[in-house]
C-alpha cells in the first residue's frame, strides 16, 4: 500500500474449501492488502498464510495477458477474437468429423458457479455430450458417492457451527492444521475455552498430530477395518441408539454402482440388498479390535478408546475428513463406514454430532457438486433420469433429446479417451492436470499425440499450458465477478475489484463467446455487463425447492455468504433434523428425505487391501499430498515470494529410522521408483512431517518434481476417484 485511500471489499478466499471471508484492500486500481472479515461466521476475522498473501498471486511477472496460438511448434500472440473464432471452428469441425463425444471440457473446483454453469449448459445442453468433468473428481468424488449411498443427498448435513458444540473431534486421515488451517484453529480455540479433545487418526505424524491430544497411527488402507471394529465395539457394548436406528436406518450390503452407466464395462453386477441388524452384527464378528489390531497396527486398546467416545451418550462427536478418505481405492466405502458409526449411535444432524466431509477447493461443492460439472450430473439431478433431463433442458431452452441419457467419461477415463483418440478436442480451465493426473506420463504423452487439439485457459504458464494448441489468458478471482460454494454449503459472492491484465477474460465469458460463435446465441443471451447476475438467476431455477433453494444474489451481496437450503429468508444449518430443516416432512425428529423411504443406510463394507501394496521389489508405501504454503500445484502460490521462499521445492519425507538405516540425511538426493517410473528428489527427515516406518510422503506442488509421473491411476470403482495416497515404491539413496 502507498498510504492513499483504500477501499475494502468483501470476497471469499480463493485458496481452499474452508471458504474464509476476506476483505481486500484496493488502492489506485490495485489489490494491495487482505485481512480476515470479522463479520464472516467461517473465520471470524482470521486467515492463514495463503489467505493473507492471496492478492499477490495476481501480480506475478509472467501473467498470461494475450492469447497464444501454436503455429509450427511455436506460440504466436493473437487477438482474443481470433483465438475464440479458432476454438469455436475447431470444435465444430471436430464434432463434424468425429461426433459430439469427441469434444470435452475439463474444469475445476476452482471454477466459479457461473463458469461451471455455462460449461455444463454448452456441452450437455447445446452440443449434446456429457463430456464434462472437473478436477474435483480427483478430490471429493468419494465424498459425493458416500453421501448418495448413505443418505441419497449430497453434502454435509451439519456445518462449521458444529465445532462450537462438539466435545470430541476425531480426524480421519486429514492434516487439518495444514490443509484447513483456519478451521483447525477453531478446534484449538474450543480446546482452550471448553477443554474439548482432538484425536488424530492418520498414517503419518503431521503438525495436526503434534497439536492433537492423541495421535493414533494406522497402516495405509486399514481405516476400513478400524471403522468396522469401532462399529463392532458400539454393538458389543450396547451403545447403539436403538430408537434412532429403528426409526431412521436400513441395513444394506452390496457394491452399488451408482448408475454411472459404466457397469457393463467394469462388470458391476452386484446389486444392493437389504439385510437385518443380526446379519450386520454377524458380519462385524470378523472385525473385533483384537483381530483388527493385526491388520491395522492400531492397538485394540486404542480402537476401544476411539469407540468409547462415539459410544458415550454424554459426548458430542464430530468426525472430520478430506483426501485421506476420499483418495482411496475404497473411498466410497470408508465414507459409508464413518457414517455407520454416527448412524448406529444416532450422533448425526444435530449441533455438535456431525460426520463432516471437508472439501479441498474453494468451490468443489458450489460448482462441481451443486452446478453438477461431472459427466453424470445435471444441476438438479442426473443425466440418467428422463425427468431431470427434461427439467434442465427447459431452463436451458434446448430440446430434452439434446442431453444424452448416459454418462461418458469420468476424469481418468476422459484422459484415456484422449489417449485412444476417442476424444480429439479438450478445453481445460482453472486446473493443471499435467501436474495432478496420476500416472501422469501416460496422459502427457496422450495430449501430445497427433490429431489432438487442446485449449488451456489459465493465468500463468504451467506444464498444462505446455501441451496447449491455444492458450487463453484468464481473469483471476477478483478481476471478475463470481461466486464460490464452500464445505458447509455456504455460497459466497465477490465483485470485480480490479481490472484483469491485457486481454485476460473470465472463464465464464470465454465460454459464452465460444457458444455464441457456435450458433447458440439464443441460449447464451447474456449481456456482458450483467451476465453473472443473469446466469446466477437462471441457475437458481434448477434448485427451486425446499431441499436445495439457493439465496438470491441480493442476499449474497449483503452477507458473508449464505447456506443452502435457503428457505423463507433463512439458511438451514442442520439438514434432516425437523427442528432446523423445513424440508423434513415425516412428522419425526429426523427425516433422511434423500432416500425414498426417508431412512439412511448403514452399509456392510468389508476391509479390502489397497490396489497396489508394498512387496519385495517396491517395499515402501508412497503417499502424496499438500503443504500449507502452497495451493495445490503451486502455480499461483509459487509466484507469491514469501510463500515460495518458505517452501521453495519438493522433497521426500522419510521416517527417521529408515533414513538412519539407509544413511540418508535431509538434503541428500533420493531415487523413488515405482512400476510407472522413477524420480529423484531431496530427502526431508524430521522436518515438516514424519511418516511411519517403511512409508514416504511427497508433496505434489513442485512442477519440477512431478511425483504424479510415478503414482498409480487406480480408482474407487464407485466414485472413480484415484487413490493418490497409496502405491508401492522403492527408495534408494542416489
Ligand atoms: Fe484461505 Fe483456506 Fe487459508 Fe481460509 S484456511 S485463508 S480459505 S486458504
TrEMBL record:
A single Gene Ontology CC term: nitrate reductase complex
Top enzyme class: oxidoreductase
Keyword Cytoplasm attached: no
Classification via CDD domains: MopB_CT_Nitrate-R-NapA-like, MopB_Nitrate-R-NapA-like
Post-translational changes noted in the entry: Predicted to be exported by the Tat system. The position of the signal peptide cleavage has not been experimentally proven.
Location of the 4Fe-4S Mo/W bis-MGD-type domain: 6-62
Record keywords: 4Fe-4S, Electron transport, Iron, Iron-sulfur, Metal-binding, Molybdenum, Nitrate assimilation, Oxidoreductase, Periplasm, Signal, Transport
Sample GO molecular function, one term: 4 iron, 4 sulfur cluster binding
Free-text comment on the cofactor: Binds 1 molybdenum-bis(molybdopterin guanine dinucleotide) (Mo-bis-MGD) cofactor per subunit.
Record field: catalytic activity: 2 Fe(II)-[cytochrome] + nitrate + 2 H(+) = 2 Fe(III)-[cytochrome] + nitrite + H2O
UniProt KW Lipid biosynthesis keyword: no
EC number of the protein: 1.9.6.1
Binding site for [4Fe-4S] cluster: 13, 16, 20, 48
Alphabetical list of PROSITE patterns matching this protein: 4FE4S_MOW_BIS_MGD (PS51669), MOLYBDOPTERIN_PROK_1 (PS00551), TAT (PS51318)
Broad class of the protein's primary localization: secreted
GO annotation terms (biological process): cellular respiration; Mo-molybdopterin cofactor biosynthetic process; nitrate assimilation
Cofactor (UniProt): Mo-bis(molybdopterin guanine dinucleotide); [4Fe-4S] cluster
Top-level taxon in the UniProt lineage: Bacteria
InterPro entries membership: Asp_de-COase-like_dom_sf, CT_Nitrate-R-NapA-like, MoPterin_dinucl-bd_dom, Mopterin_OxRdtase, Mopterin_OxRdtase_4Fe-4S_dom, MopterinOxRdtase_cofactor_BS, Periplasm_NO3_reductase_lsu, Prok_molybdopt-oxidoreductase
Protein family according to the UniProt entry: Belongs to the prokaryotic molybdopterin-containing oxidoreductase family. NasA/NapA/NarB subfamily.
Function: Catalytic subunit of the periplasmic nitrate reductase complex NapAB. Receives electrons from NapB and catalyzes the reduction of nitrate to nitrite. Catalytic subunit of the nitrate reductase complex NapAB. Receives electrons from NapB and catalyzes the reduction of nitrate to nitrite.
Self-association and partners: Component of the nitrate reductase NapAB complex composed of NapA and NapB.
HAMAP family membership: Nitrate_reduct_NapA (MF_01630)
Protein name per its UniProtKB record: Nitrate reductase
Origin species: Fulvitalea axinellae
Amino acid at each position: 500500500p502507498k498510504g492513499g485511500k483504500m477501499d475494502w471489499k468483501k470476497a471469499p478466499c480463493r485458496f481452499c474449501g474452508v471458504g474464509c471471508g476476506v476483505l481486500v484492500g484496493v488502492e489506485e486500481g490495485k489489490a494491495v492488502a487482505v485481512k480476515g472479515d470479522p463479520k464472516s461466521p467461517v473465520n471470524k476475522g482470521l486467515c492463514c498464510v495463503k489467505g493473507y498473501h492471496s492478492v499477490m498471486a495476481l501480480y506475478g511477472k509472467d501473467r498470461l495477458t494475450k492469447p497464444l496460438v501454436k503455429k509450427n511448434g511455436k506460440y504466436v500472440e493473437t487477438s482474443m477474437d481470433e483465438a475464440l473464432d479458432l476454438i469455436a471452428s475447431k470444435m465444430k469441425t471436430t464434432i463434424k468429423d468425429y461426433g459430439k463425444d469427441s469434444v470435452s471440457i475439463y474444469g475445476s473446483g476452482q471454477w466459479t458457479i457461473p463458469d461451471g454453469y455455462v460449461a455444463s449448459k454448452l456441452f450437455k445442453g447445446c452440443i449434446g455430450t456429457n463430456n464434462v468433468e472437473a478436477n474435483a473428481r480427483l478430490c471429493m468424488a468419494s465424498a459425493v458417492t458416500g453421501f448418495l449411498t448413505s443418505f441419497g443427498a449430497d453434502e454435509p448435513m451439519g456445518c462449521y457451527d458444529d465445532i462450537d458444540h462438539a466435545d470430541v473431534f476425531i480426524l480421519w486421515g486429514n492434516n487439518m492444521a495444514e490443509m484447513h488451517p483456519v478451521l483447525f484453529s477453531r478446534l484449538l480455540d474450543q480446546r482452550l475455552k471448553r477443554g474439548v479433545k482432538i484425536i488424530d487418526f492418520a498414517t503419518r505424524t503431521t503438525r495436526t498430530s503434534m497439536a492433537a491430544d492423541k495421535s493414533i497411527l494406522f497402516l495405509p488402507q486399514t481405516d476400513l477395518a478400524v471403522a468396522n471394529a469401532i462399529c463392532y465395539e458400539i454393538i458389543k457394548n450396547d451403545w447403539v441408539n436403538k430408537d434412532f436406528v429403528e426409526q431412521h436406518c436400513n441395513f444394506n450390503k452390496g457394491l452399488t454402482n451408482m448408475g454411472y452407466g459404466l457397469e457393463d464395462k467394469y462388470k458391476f453386477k452386484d446389486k444392493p440388498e437389504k439385510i437385518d441388524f443380526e446379519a450386520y452384527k454377524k458380519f462385524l464378528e470378523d472385525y473385533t479390535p483384537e483381530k483388527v489390531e493385526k491388520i491395522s497396527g492400531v492397538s485394540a486398546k486404542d480402537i476401544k478408546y476411539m469407540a468409547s467416545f462415539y459410544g458415550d451418550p454424554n459426548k458430542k462427536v464430530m468426525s472430520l475428513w478430506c483426501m485421506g478418505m476420499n483418495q482411496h481405492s475404497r473411498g466410497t466405502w470408508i465414507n459409508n463406514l464413518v457414517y455407520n458409526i454416527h448412524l448406529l449411535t444416532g450422533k448425526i444432524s444435530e449441533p455438535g454430532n456431525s460426520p463432516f466431509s471437508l472439501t479441498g477447493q474453494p468451490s468443489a461443492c458450489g460448482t462441481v457438486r451443486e452446478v453438477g460439472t461431472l459427466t453424470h450430473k445435471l444441476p438438479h439431478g442426473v443425466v440418467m433420469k428422463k425427468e431431470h433431463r427434461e427439467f434442465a433442458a427447459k431452463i436451458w431452452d434446448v430440446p430434452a433429446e439434446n442431453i444424452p441419457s448416459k454418462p461418458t467419461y469420468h476424469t481418468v477415463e476422459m484422459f484415456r479417451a484422449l489417449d485412444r483418440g476417442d476424444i480429439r478436442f479438450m478445453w481445460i480451465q482453472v486446473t493443471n492436470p499435467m501436474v495432478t493426473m496420476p500416472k501422469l506420463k501416460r496422459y502427457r504423452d496422450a495430449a501430445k499425440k497427433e490429431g489432438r487439439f487442446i485449449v488451456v485457459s489459465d493465468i500463468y504458464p504451467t506444464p498444462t499450458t505446455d501441451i496447449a494448441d491455444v492458450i487463453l489468458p484468464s481473469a483471476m478471482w477478483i478481476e471478475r465477478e463470481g461466486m464460490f460454494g464452500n464445505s458447509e454449503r455456504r455460497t459466497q459472492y465477490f465483485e470485480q475489484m480490479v481490472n484483469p491484465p491485457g486481454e485476460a477474460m473470465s472463464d465464464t465469458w470465454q465460454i459464452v463467446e465460444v457458444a455464441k460463435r457456435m450458433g447458440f446465441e439464443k441460449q447464451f443471451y447474456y449481456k456482458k455487463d450483467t451476465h453473472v447476475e443473469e446466469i446466477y438467476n437462471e441457475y437458481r431455477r434448477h434448485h427451486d425447492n425446499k431441499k436445495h433453494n439457493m439465496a438470491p444474489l441480493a442476499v449474497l451481496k449483503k452477507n458473508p455468504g449464505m447456506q443452502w437450503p435457503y428457505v423463507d429468508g433463512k439458511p438451514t444449518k442442520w439438514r434432516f433434523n425437523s427442528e432446523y430443516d423445513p424440508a423434513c416432512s415425516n412428522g419425526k425428529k429426523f427425516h433422511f428425505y434423500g432416500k425414498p423411504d426417508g431412512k439412511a443406510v448403514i452399509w456392510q463394507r468389508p476391509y479390502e487391501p489397497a490396489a497396489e501394496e508394498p512387496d519385495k521389489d517396491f517395499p515402501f508405501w508412497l503417499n502424496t499430498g499438500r503443504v500449507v504454503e502452497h495451493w495445490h500445484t503451486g502455480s499461483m502460490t509459487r509466484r507469491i515470494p514469501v510463500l515460495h521462499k518458505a517452501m521453495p521445492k519438493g522433497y521426500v519425507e522419510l521416517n527417521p529410522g529408515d533414513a538412519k538405516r539407509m544413511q540418508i540425511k535431509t538434503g541428500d538426493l533420493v531415487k523413488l521408483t515405482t512400476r510407472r517410473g522413477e524420480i529423484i528428489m531431496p530427502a526431508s527427515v524430521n522436518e515438516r512431517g514424519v511418516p511411519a516406518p517403511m512409508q514416504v510422503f511427497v508433496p505434489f506442488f513442485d512442477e519440477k518434481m512431478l511425483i504424479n509421473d510415478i503414482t498409480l491411476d487406480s480408482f474407487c470403482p464407485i466414485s472413480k476417484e484415484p487413490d493418490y495416497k497409496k502405491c508401492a515404491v522403492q527408495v534408494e539413496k542416489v
